[in-house]
């Protein structure tokens, strides 16, 4: 994939707010590679939501906005909105570049396959309230860029995304998934613990990921879970 925006670790954020809109004029494109599975998830406080694979270029901007809001949520920079906009533009470019990859081509970070999963909200299919990336690297899978909009937190969105990602990984024939979590990100730590993730002692794998994601925050620790999830 073409150069992407600064990547955030898998469990560094479950954040983001504001309304996201589809870019107009972007064509709907067919799926690349294996067919996408749509999962139905019951929310505690709302009707069923859907986890699906990003395969529509028109939704790339919605996902990019969500990631930008998450990345800069705690920023006090006076130019925060401008930074968010530029970040979102770079993220959209990266997502579009990925969607346009030819089958079999490797991604920008060396992944054999990279899939973006997203959760639609109530209003329409254009309403994206959560997303994450699932990357296949040889015989293992890595999760990153987990983000959930502010209004949708504590409703099982992140858990639903991770479970859907685990199903995708199992379909690729792997037996474990990996992610990074930043110490002190209590919601993320609790979410992954409930799903059966534990600390990983695989320093070699951590090094491989850190090289692909050079902006991994200091202190981010590698976690892993065997499939199927608990």
TrEMBL record:
Residues 1-38 are annotated as: Disordered. Residues 8-17 have a biased composition (Polar residues). GO terms for molecular function: acyltransferase activity, transferring groups other than amino-acyl groups. Residues 66-214 form the N-acetyltransferase domain. This is N-acetyltransferase domain-containing protein. It comes from Pycnococcus provasolii. The lineage of its organism: Eukaryota, Viridiplantae, Chlorophyta, Pseudoscourfieldiophyceae, Pseudoscourfieldiales.
């Amino acid at each position: 994939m073409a150069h992407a925006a600064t990547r955030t670790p898998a469990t560094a954020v479950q954040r983001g707010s504001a309304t996201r809109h589809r870019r107009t004029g972007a064509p709907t494109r067919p799926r690349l590679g294996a067919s996408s599975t749509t999962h139905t998830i019951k929310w505690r406080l709302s009707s069923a939501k859907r986890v699906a694979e990003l395969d529509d270029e028109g939704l790339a901007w919605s996902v990019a906005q969500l990631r930008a809001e998450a990345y800069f949520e705690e920023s006090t920079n006076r130019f925060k909105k401008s930074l968010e906009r530029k970040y979102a533009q770079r993220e959209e470019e990266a997502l579009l570049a990925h969607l346009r990859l030819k089958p079999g081509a490797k991604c920008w970070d060396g992944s054999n396959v990279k899939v973006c999963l997203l959760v639609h909200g109530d209003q329409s299919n254009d309403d994206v309230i959560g997303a994450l990336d699932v990357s296949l690297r040889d015989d293992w899978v890595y999760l990153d860029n987990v983000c959930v909009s502010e209004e949708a937190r504590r409703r099982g969105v992140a858990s639903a995304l991770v479970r859907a990602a685990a199903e995708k990984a199992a379909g690729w024939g792997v037996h474990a998934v990996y992610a990074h979590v930043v110490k002190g990100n209590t919601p993320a730590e609790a979410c992954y613990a409930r799903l059966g993730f534990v600390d990983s002692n695989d320093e070699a794998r951590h090094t491989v990921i850190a090289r692909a994601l050079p902006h991994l925050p200091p202190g981010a620790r590698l976690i892993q879970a065997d499939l199927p999830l608990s």
